[in-house]
Amino acid sequence: MDSKKNLVVFILILIAGFLYGQDTEKYIYLDDIAYKYLDYRINSGKSIPGFVFYQPYDTKTLETDDRAVKGGTYFDRFWQRYYGSGEISGQLDLGDEVRYHNTVFNRYRVRGSIHFTHENITLANRTAINQDFKHDPQYAGDLSESGHWLYGRVSEAYINLNFGGFNGFLGRVQRNWGPIGSKSLMLSDNPYTYDHFLFSYTWKILKISLIFGRLEDLDAWEQQNAEQAPVFIKNARKYFTGHRLDLAFSERFQIGLTEMATYGGEDRDFEFAFLNPMNFYYGIQRNDQKQMNGMWSLDLFYKPWQQLTLYGQFLIDDIIVNNDPGVDDRARYPDRLGIMASARTGDWLLEGLNLELTYNRIWNRTYQSKNTYENYHYRELGMGYPTASCEEAKIQAGFWGLFPLFIETDLLIGRYGDVALTDLFPLEKESFPLAPVTDNLLTNLNVYYFFNPLVNASVNLQYLKDKNHYTNRINQFEGFSARIGVQIVLAGGLDL
């Protein structure tokens, strides 16, 4: 109980301090196509965010747009119109798609939002009604009335406060701590949004962040070792917390270091010790006997020259070390790791051309624990990379030289083991990927046309070999499918 009181006092003090700040925070939401354009901007060397791994970006990222590119100010104008010129703004996003997969059918989306921005404070709510929710097995909502129109979700809802270099966030929004346009190994936009606190401090080349929250209660398994049978626990509590250091040594070289912990159990309370941003979670576990599952990651961003970008991520869930003389733990227990490497170019072969080549490998039992309330997912959707026991290669090309026409194509080839992120860690070595192994091939052709800052249309042609992989969250069909869609955004602002 004392830890809860201390947490409340801590938050109130921060809020009181932030009320004297100056700058608002207006996010570019991660589901917007602007990130494809920002990826091109980074790869071509036209503009690089101060902390490239830290998404969502804010609208200031677009303010220095290069007008030499056709339509280069489009996304800047869109987000200026989206938030409006006043302190309070409202938005209505209307989308509709005609799709084909064996037959022709229709899917629509309506998304309404309201934002209040004044000096140091931003208040936001964005709620969506989307027919795709009805067809998503991991939809985090109630579908009992889906035969009518009640299949909506509050996707973003938050208060954001700024004071100098300090930032305080309470609420839900999609985040990605990794290469732009890719699912981060540590913290990605893969799951549905969840409520959390995030505090950060930025000073020159340095950004320090602390994130924490309570996830869903779940029925879980708990085990001490391989010799004892697991114990079933109903409605186990689940928490996550993490701290991160970003260092932007220059525009061309940045790194990020993250430590994350998930913990919980039957009637377990929030652990205030994990709020210490200068502590080590592994030390808390060993010294204070506070059980958790820890992960560590290193992110690298390097531009050896203007038109080439190199990204790397290395995730450690667990590395087995032989501590006891005569005991070979490495022969018995598996490492749990993840790696990502990506090379990208912009304007290299042709002005406006954006190219990407990415490789991912996630070990068999990465993101799992011997206690399933410590597994790294939210409602069965991975909070880092979407799956484990996988190896993938992806090539993608996009062309901005014909703007307002944008054309993009990609090809993903992968192999996947028989692993779910909800599994209980079996505490034994296994072949990679875990048998039975399946392979997959996914290819897309996307064409967008931007009529004006608030209206665009798109066409998608897709082939997917096997729908039974994580790519099949929504909108995915085995074999050939097609979509034709239009998006209209109505927005306006008002000074109070």
Give the topology string: H per helix, E per strand: HHEHEEEEEEEEEEEHEEEEEEEEEEE
CATH class: Mainly Beta
Q: Oligomeric state of the chains? A: single chain
Q: Helix count? A: 4
- Overall geometry: globular
**Percentage of residues in DSSP E strands:** over 45%
Terminal Cα separation, in Å? Answer: 41 Å
* Estimated helix fraction: under 10%
- The CATH architecture designation is Beta Barrel
User: Any low-confidence stretches, pLDDT <50, length ≥5?
Assistant: none
* Biggest sheet details: 18 strands, antiparallel, barrel
Helix/strand layout:
Blueprint: H1 2-18, H2 34-43, E1 54-55, H3 74-83, E2 88-101, E3 103-118, E4 121-130, E5 152-163, E6 166-172, E7 176-177, E8 196-203, E9 206-214, E10 218-222, E11 231-250, E12 253-265, H4 281-288, E13 293-305, E14 308-318, E15 336-346, E16 353-362, E17 377-378, E18 381-382, E19 390-399, E20 405-416, E21 438-452, E22 455-464, E23 479-494
Antiparallel strand pairs: 1-7, 2-3, 2-23, 3-4, 4-5, 5-6, 6-8, 8-9, 9-11, 10-11, 11-12, 12-13, 13-14, 14-15, 15-16, 16-19, 17-18, 19-20, 20-21, 21-22, 22-23
